[in-house]
Amino acid sequence: MKDLFKLDYFDLASGSKEEIKDWFNVKVEGHSEESAAKTREEYGDNEIDYGTEKPLWRIVVEAYFTPFTLVLFALALVSFLTDFIFVPAEEQEILGPIIIIVLVLLSGTMTLIQTLRSKRSVEKLESLVEVTSAIKRNGEYSEIRTEDIVVGDWVRLSAGDMIPADIRLVESKDLFVSQTSLTGESYPVEKRADMEITEITNETAYENLAFTGTEVVSGSAVGIVVKTGNNTLFGDIADELAHEEPETSFDIGIKNTSLLLIRFMIVMALIVILINGLTKGDWLQALIFGVSIAVGLTPEMLPMIVTTNLVKGANDMAKEGTIVRNLHGIQNFGAINLLVTDKTGTLTQDNIILQAHLDIDGLESKRVLRHAYLNSSYQTGLGNLMDKAIINAAEEELDVESYNYNKVDEIPFDFERRRLSVVVEDETGKTQLITKGAVEEMLDVCSYVDFDGSVKELTEDRREFVREQIAELNRKGLRVLGVAQKTNPPPVDEFSVEDEKNMVLIGYLAFLDPPKESTREAIAALKEHSVDVKVMSGDNELVNIAVAEQVGLPTDRVISGDQLINKTDDELGEIVENHDLFVKLNPTQKSKLVFILRENGHVVGFLGDGINDSPALRASDVGISVDNAVDIAKESADIILLEKDLMILEQGILSGRKIFGNTMKYIKATTSSNFGNVFSVLLASLLLPFLPMLPIQLLFLGLIYEISSMSIPWDNMDEEYLYKPKKWEASSIKRFMVWFGPTSSIFDITTFLISFFLIAPSIAGGSYGSIGVEEKVIFISVFQSSWFIVSLWTQTLVLHTLRTPKIPFIESNASFIMITITTIGIVIGSVAPYTRLGELLGLAPLPMSAWWMLIITVAAYLALVQIVKNIYVKKYGELL
Fold first, then answer.
1. 659-698: per-residue pLDDT in tens?
2. Residue whose C-alpha is closest to residue 177's, from 195, 158, 194, 196
């Protein structure tokens, strides 16, 4: 074997076919499994390293060193210096820095665990969706994983295939390839195996080479793999293509909110330090308190909660039969407000049956079936369910085993002609060009019709007669193809579309593809959840209308692809809004209409499985395909459905909305709580002669709250919340903070007053100004314990209140996990003042009378939050 690494693309294109076979040691029967394994060991797997695979060390660093944890590390250092280094030995306190580090470790470790779970989940889910290629091994072609292809393999290509490696073509037939992924050109280029290359030019211009990542649009070919993996042309530019997954609007919103909270925290902490230093004179204590406030204002669990939501959501969606190929696109899935779908197999059962094979007079005809069988069985392009239905029907009704035909040539299907031809020769030497395809396109190439038992000229009256016959079949929901033939066409070296003329139309094929039983229910469910459905199909108007009527879609707003030609973008913008059924569309039109819908402000999901759907899949916000789709469609999709069922899709959309909602719970509840706490602390710092809460108490309070928040990804969402699409809106977070932050401040002030004038004096033996130093220590400890308890209860219970617009615990309950973890957090914090831990934290036990006052305060706060919440929802229409 020649040194393959030294071969450039000019060598591969200009070398003769025999030289290529010799260089790569290619045998007629292809590789054996042993030789394939040996070649793979020498030249590697057929996989491209895009540079996006993060090493473990980077995942660890990113988990523990987020903007939030970096802030906490800095605060831990400051706390260590102020609590332990720069204080007398008898006043040294190490618990504060330890709690901060625990928060960092807790956030980082949970984020790391969920990130690794996310990585494993994606790998596991991706393994469920395999892309294969037709490879010749041991003398037979079979579908094998593209990763297992090696140099020297024989590859068979047909329409709809992704080209799995760099290939030197040996045979080709009307092969057109889209090289958009390499060149950016939208138009397919023709590739020809017999093209002689004598001049060096751009690699993609070599007509006898096909490249990794490009797509077969039409035609067929056989070739030899000459480069794999990173050695391919696509691999050569992998470094330039290397990129992180693009950020969704949700990712950008999270990042911007995080930076906003950090800036807010820094400014507020500095103000608190300044006020306490000036009013109390102890700048060291003011610094320690400011650091603790900063820790409390840092939502360090946000990265963990976002990651956990995504991983849990992807796994939940997988259980529903929905494979997520890009975790960060899940939020877009929940934001879909318009689903665009093809008709075949999505609204219908995708179980096509040949219902009738008719002559032009409308009578059953075995002759028509025989010609259709020869066309379907000898074509080598993209096989479809119609061809399978024809072959199945012929094997049942005809003696196909007695047929003795040789295939002479083939003119593959493409989406412009919408027809397919084969040339066959029987044992007497008679040749026939047999064509089947969409009826209108068949009429374009027919000059004659087999009518009333004889071949007659296809006059305009007879054309109209044919159209009426087809329309009647279409109105019954039947899809119809025309069949035509030409006997003894003039012999040529190679047949082409130019030979499809002056043909004789001999009959029709009528196919039944009934709607799925679940489709009507699924469309109603999508509508109930504010997702409109539009159909974009290549089929004709009457068939689409028949199916739409059966599944409950409106049929009064239909437009054909012919009517869209030469329309401006502004005109298309109105058309897509005013129509529901789009018929006889080509792939470019589908893609353009999806793009226009997005420009109009819709979040568009496109569901398709065919080669003609791949441009629209790429143009949509969320491309959705199915496991048995053609390679191009699967590679273009963000979401893969293991079953082509709209009910599964609806469940996936609801899962996306649930993930969004649970993330917003933490963000909105935490930001509003922090916003309110800042006002409370500022006011307390101005009015109180002591700190309202010790720094160590603030840290412990934050630790309990953040642990409680870890349960949010496992929470339920109200059904009503799932009814509407969800998109990130930064303004709603600011609005939420302004409304609910001051609400908590009101009851913080109430707690200050009750604790300062009632609870603390009752235990310390008098008002703060009238008691001695020892009694003041007790007074301060009781005051701080009171605010600690109220803050703990309100911060935790408000999670339950703000998680739903309804009345918590009565009209809407949190999940068992969330109720359990938040209850444990409240119990630990409430018991703490009566334990040794409470002593270390400076907390004092409270009498039962104090508890009643605090419980009434908490209840009043939750009641006020409920009232404010009702007003807020009434004003803005939503809570989260």
1. 888 888 888 888 788 778 777 877 777 788 887 877 778 7
2. 158
CA 377 distance to own-chain centroid: 38
Calculate the CA 39 to chain-centre distance: 36
Are 620 and 340 in contact, with CB atoms under 8 Å apart?
Answer: yes
Coarse DSSP helix, strand, coil percentages of the chain, rounded to the nearest 5 percent = 55, 15, 30
- Residue 409 annotated among the catalytic residues of the structure: no
Residue 776 token pair: 């003041």
Identify the CA nearest to 677 among candidates 747, 755, 756, 733: 747
Cα(455)–Cα(367) distance, integer angstroms: 14
Task: Give the N- to C-terminal CA distance of the chain in Å, as an integer.
Answer: 65
Least Cα distance to 403 among 442, 435, 449, 371 occurs for 371
Q: What is the pLDDT of residues 547-593, one digit of tens each?
A: 777 777 887 888 888 888 888 888 888 998 998 888 888 777 888 89
Flag whether the pTM goes above 0.85.
no
For residues 176 and 154, the answer to whether their CB atoms sit within 8 Å is no
Q: How does residue 242 score in pLDDT terms, banded at 50, 70 and 90?
A: very low
Beginning with the edge strand found earlier in the chain, give each strand of the sheet holding 622-626 in spatial order. Answer: 322-324, 639-641, 622-626, 604-607, 338-341, 532-536, 581-583, 558-560
Element (H, E) at 251: helix 249-280
Average pLDDT over residues 508-520: 80
Alpha helices in 476-608 (DSSP H): 519-528, 541-551, 569-578, 587-599
The Cα diameter of the chain in Å comes to 123
- Where helices occur in 330-402 by DSSP H, the ranges are 330-335, 366-378, 385-397
* Cα angle 777-782-787, degrees, rounded to a multiple of 5: 130
CA 392 to chain centre: 37
pLDDT in tens, 452-500: 878 999 999 989 999 888 888 888 778 889 999 998 888 777 788 888 9
CA 6, CA 199: separation in Å to the nearest integer? 19
Distance, in Å, from the CA atom of 401 to the CA atom of 804, rounded to the nearest integer, reads 68
Q: Which of 123, 149, 121, 127 is nearest to 137 (CA)?
A: 149
Which of 148, 342, 414, 715 is the catalytic position? 342
Three-state DSSP at 105 gives helix
Q: Is the distance from CB of 214 to CB of 163 less than 8 angstroms?
A: yes
Pair 121, 132: CB distance under 8 Å: no
The two structure tokens encoding residue 404: 């003795």
Cα separation values, 153 from 42, 150, 174, 225, 485, Å:
14, 6, 22, 5, 37
Amino acid identity of residue 580, one-letter, is D
Angle value at C-alpha 651, between 645 and 656, nearest 5 degrees: 130
Distance CA 693, CA 788 (A): 7
Give the closest residue to 12 by CA, choosing from 241, 170, 244, 236. 170
Contacts of 155 (CB under 8 A, 6+ apart): 133, 134, 135, 136, 149, 164, 165, 167, 222, 223, 224, 225
